[in-house]
Specification:
By secondary structure, the chain is α/β, with parallel strands linked by helices. It has two domains: about 210 residues, FAD/NAD(P)-binding domain; about 180 residues, Polyamine Oxidase, Chain A, domain 2. Helices cover about 35% and strands about 20% of the residues. The chain has 14 helices and 20 strands. Strands 1, 2, 8, 9, 10, 11, 12 and 20 form an eight-stranded mixed β-sheet that branches. The chain has a six-stranded mixed β-sheet with strand order 6-15-16-17-14-18. The chain has a two-stranded antiparallel sheet with strand order 3-4. α1 links the parallel β1 and β2. α1 packs parallel to α6, α3 packs across α4 and α4 runs antiparallel to α5. It is globular, with a radius of gyration of 22 Å. The structure holds flavin-adenine dinucleotide. Flavin-adenine dinucleotide binds next to α1, β2, β14 and α13. The site of flavin-adenine dinucleotide has 44 residues, from α1, β2, β14 and α13.
């Protein structure tokens, strides 16, 4: 066995960030990664000539964002795309009503104003909610108080349901009333012209990463840690575990001795949702130019409701839609062609025969992937925001956890993974790691290597 100071398990954003920081500090670090690539849930498919981000796409809010600071120092080109399940309105959107009829600009504006008004009421209702109440409970209370007619209430209820599904991958009746408290957006949002996985790939360049090393056991003692994989054993003074919460909950990694309640409790209480993506490329555009999003309300949008125009990235007319929460799980039982046929049915309800057969398609399956076991973490009833940070340890001074689910400020994001990797590195080193210096170091190393 080679001697290492620290073993990092997982080469996603949290893992490569932590490993690089430890390596920069002169530690001997090895990264054990089960897959044959870096990036984890940041995964860009470039086989079709354009970058299709099958995992994360967005930086959700670029103000006061350490992640955005990193993107800027690395000089990575982005595209403003401030829209999504987070925003009721804000950018140009095309709306269809519950019968599948195109809504006028005035009707669209009225719907946005009504939904935003209920959303503001919801903030107060959540603040006064009782422990154990779900997001469905507080939504109903806000809708009851809105004074809107029954049809509008149904549309807004459905919008809130879809928002929970997209942001948490969960059913609205399972999410804690406070489950979206940490999901505020500061500033514009952006997506990536060259693919999001450029970030972990550039951080990881030159690290000692062992691919195909599936970790099955982490043992700890006063003298350090021993990590068992399907191929062998590694030992070190400390270990940073960055595998997704879904993998930890699934129990495929044994901890010896078992994790203490302070860490095992949060892991058990936090939830993991499913959020899948479907990209469809069409021979011709059948939707209007300039609209970020096509959104179907009411019955027309019961299953498939939001289509994002990502043609600017692909150069070919391309729509992205999501299957999240219960629909996301159900979708995983179907074949890819069955899923696409169902999406096309919904689109044809809006645009009729103008919707041609796609020329290319991508359908993800994050819930069934053994290395993610879900898409991202959320807060079911019974869990608290404190559980995220509590799940990071450390345990006995030698076992640390990082990853999106361990960062309470904005869990379920790339930014959370980045910050959690930074925190783990600081804990292992026992001192501060300067983020601007870290980012500048990546660029300096690239310059030296390209000479
Ligand atoms: C479809 C989808 C869309 C998303 N959209 C966005 C978005 O737009 N914006 C945003 O900010 N966030 C988004 N996210 C969330 C974001 O991708 C994650 O929060 C972030 O990438 C998690 O990074 P991580 O390092 O914590 O975990 P991961 O990236 O999952 O890294 C963990 C690593 O551990 C490895 N691993 C797992 N088990 C083992 C094992 N037993 N042995 C060894 N290695 C193992 C995995 O292969 C993986 O490489 C999205 C996620 C999904 C799935």
């Amino acid at each position: 066995m080679e001697p290492h100071d620290t073993i990092v398990i997982g080469a996603g954003m949290a893992g490569v960030t932590c490993a690089r920081m430890l390596g920069d500090a002169g530690m001997r670090v090895v990264v054990l990664e089960g897959r044959d690539r870096v990036g984890g849930r940041m995964h860009t498919d470039r086989t079709c000539g354009f970058p299709a981000d099958l995992g994360a796409s967005w930086v959700h809010g670029i103000e006061d964002s350490p992640l955005w600071d990193l993107v800027r120092v690395l000089g990575i080109p982005t595209l403003e795309y401030t829209v999504g399940s987070f925003q009721v309105g804000g950018r140009m959107m095309t709306h269809f009503d519950g019968d599948g009829a195109l809504m006028s600009a005035a009707a669209s504006a009225q719907w946005i104003a009504d939904a935003e008004a209920v959303d503001r009421m919801l903030v107060d209702v959540i603040a006064r909610s009782f422990p154990g109440e779900t997001y469905a409970d507080v939504t109903e209370r806000a809708l009851d108080a809105s004074g809107l007619d029954a049809e509008r209430i149904d549309e807004i209820r459905e919008f809130f349901r879809h928002r929970v599904e997209e942001q948490c991958g969960a059913w609205i009746g399972d999410l804690d009333a406070h489950g979206l408290d940490e999901d505020g957006i500061d500033g514009d949002e952006v997506i990536f012209r060259r693919g999001y996985d450029e970030i972990p790939a550039r951080i990881a360049a030159g690290l000692d990463i062992r691919f195909g090393e599936i970790v099955t056991r982490v043992s700890r003692s006063a003298s350090g840690v021993r990590v068992t994989t399907t191929r062998g054993e590694y030992s070190a003074a400390s270990v940073v575990v960055t595998v997704p919460l879904g993998v930890l909950k699934g129990g495929s990694i044994a901890f010896d001795p078992p994790l203490p309640d302070e860490v095992a409790g949060p892991i058990a209480r936090l939830g993991v949702g499913v959020f899948n993506k479907i990209f469809l490329q069409f021979p011709e555009r059948f939707w209007p130019e300039g609209s970020y999003l096509i959104r179907a309300l009411g019955e027309a949008g019961e299953r498939w409701h939001s289509w994002y125009d990502v043609s600017a990235i692909s150069g070919i007319p391309t729509l992205l839609t999501f299957a999240a929460g219960p629909l996301g799980r159900h979708m995983q039982q179907l074949t890819e062609d069955e899923v696409v046929a169902d999406v096309l049915l919904a689109l044809r309800n809006l645009y009729g025969d103008a919707v041609a057969q796609p020329i290319a398609q991508w359908v993800t399956n994050w819930g069934d992937d053994p290395f993610s076991a879900g898409s991202y973490s959320h807060l079911p009833t019974g869990a608290s925001h404190r559980d995220h940070d509590a799940s990071s340890g450390p345990v006995d001074g030698v076992l640390h956890f990082a990853g999106e689910a361990t960062w309470g400020q904005e869990p379920a994001t790339v930014g959370a993974a980045y910050c959690s990797g930074h925190r783990a590195a600081e804990r292992v080193l026992g001192r501060r790691v300067d983020l601007p210096a870290f980012a500048a170091g990546i660029v300096a190393r690239e310059r030296t290597q390209s000479r």
